[in-house]
Design a protein that fits this description.
Blueprint: E1 4-5, H1 16-28, H2 38-58, E2 65-68, H3 71-84, E3 90-93, H4 99-112, E4 115-118, H5 129-136, E5 142-145, H6 159-168, E6 172-176, E7 195-199, E8 210-214, H7 240-255, H8 257-278, E9 283-284, E10 294-298, H9 309-315, E11 318-319, H10 325-328, H11 343-347, E12 350-354, H12 361-372
Parallel strand pairs: 1-11, 3-4, 3-5, 5-6, 6-7
Antiparallel strand pairs: 2-8, 7-8, 9-10, 10-12
The structure holds pyridoxal-5'-phosphate.
């Protein structure tokens, strides 16, 4: 049975070149980058070359890239330090953020009594920018936290527009860009933004490593305390092989971006055309102009199919998801779709299908065939 992986928004396969790079670093550059001897200096050089390479892809100075263990950590760090150290009194975010932002903001609200305002979300899952402008016209020192590409619907936020609006209103701007780094061009000199975060396993790198972009002189302080690594902002011996793998993965993602994006966009179009033929009553959850690698669809099946659909597809070797990975095992409705669908539609089966360059039209055919059997 051919296995079909269509869950690339959850995580991606590591590129062979990345594994090679990581293996080399693990075998040869095992020194502690904080040691002053040649072993340490070698590891330090791998670390700093990786930082430079990542910074180059985003067009920022290397010192503005801080390595973390994952996207979740980077989001937690930025939001918490913004409140504790930068004295942010109010956070504007949305109810369709990843839980790494949403639950962090809720914890900060409980602990520090920060004011939290949720910007309105339109029926197609887009952020209501007029409402954001309205919210920004009132209130205390504010941080806006809005994600770039939604991990469930693929809806894309215009980062440049939001960055300018935040700047005009003297608000800090943080974006969870975990789903877009490595998958679309990001020139961080082209628009104002203070903080963003990335996670290597979303762009064909290893799990357990990510980074934060922290604009110079931001005043952010560390989340926890220890050594002087990462200029004291993120203590703990750096995972040199993971970081080298992440840098390699990002470099390859951007080197191959045009061809891979064209291929993946074609697959998404093909999937939509096949669904139109086989399930003419299906609908897209989110904007029809969503990100090229992802499609979230509401299928014209009865409610009683909802609990079994993933299991049924899994039995046929097909991996998709119902939302974010952490929710896909539960039958709890997605908090993102809950902002967009009626109660009746929310109970029906929705699927998130997310592609990578490894996928083919045959994968789409196998998925659509399997859905016909439900
Ligand atoms: N933010 C978004 C939008 C995500 O999709 C994810 C991963 O699912 C995360 C944050 C968490 O990233 P990590 O797995 O590196 O903690």
């Amino acid at each position: 049975m051919k296995k079909v992986y269509l869950d690339n928004a959850s995580t991606t396969a590591i590129r062979a070149e990345v594994i090679q790079e990581m293996t080399k670093v693990m075998a040869q550059d095992y020194g502690n980058p904080s040691s002053t001897h040649s072993f340490g200096r070698n590891a330090k050089s791998v670390l700093e070359l990786s930082r430079k390479s990542i910074a180059r892809q985003l067009n920022v100075p290397a010192q503005e890239i801080i390595f973390t263990s994952c996207g979740t950590e980077a989001n937690n760090w930025i939001l918490r330090s913004a409140v504790v150290d930068l004295k942010v009194k109010r956070i504007i975010t949305s109810k369709i953020e990843h839980h790494a932002v949403l639950y962090t903001v809720q914890a900060l609200q409980r602990e520090f009594d920060v004011q939290v305002d949720y910007v309105a979300v339109k029926a197609n899952g887009e952020i209501d920018i007029t409402d954001l402008v309205e919210l920004l016209s009132q209130g205390n020192k504010t941080l806006v936290s809005l994600m770039h590409v939604n991990n469930e619907t693929g809806n894309v936020l215009d980062l440049k527009r939001i960055g300018v609006i935040c700047e005009e209103n003297s608000a800090l701007f943080h974006s969870d860009t975990v789903q877009s780094v490595g998958k679309t061009e990001l020139d961080l000199q082209a628009f104002p933004i203070d903080f963003l975060v990335a996670s290597a396993h979303k762009f064909h790198g290893p799990k357990g490593v990510g980074f934060a972009f922290i604009r110079k002189n931001s005043g952010l302080q560390p989340l926890f305390y220890g050594g002087e690594q990462e200029k004291g902002l993120r203590p703990g011996t750096e995972a040199v092989h993971q970081i080298a793998g992440m840098a390699k993965a990002l470099e390859l993602s951007y080197a191959n971006l045009e061809t891979e994006r064209t291929h993946i966009s074609e697959l998404k179009k093909y999937l939509i055309s096949q669904l139109e033929i086989e399930f003419p009553e299906f609908s897209i959850n989110g904007s029809p102009d969503g990100f090229y690698n992802m499609l979230n669809v509401l299928l014209p099946f009865s409610e009683d199919k909802t609990a079994m659909i993933l299991f049924h597809l899994d039995m046929k070797g097909i991996a998709v998801s119902r939302g974010s990975a952490c929710q896909s095992g539960s039958i709890k409705a997605s908090h993102v779709l809950a902002e967009m669908l009626s109660d009746a539609d929310l109970k029906k089966p929705s699927l998130r299908i997310s592609f990578s360059h490894h996928n083919s039209k045959e994968d789409v055919d196998l998925l659509v065939d399997a859905l016909k059997g439900i």
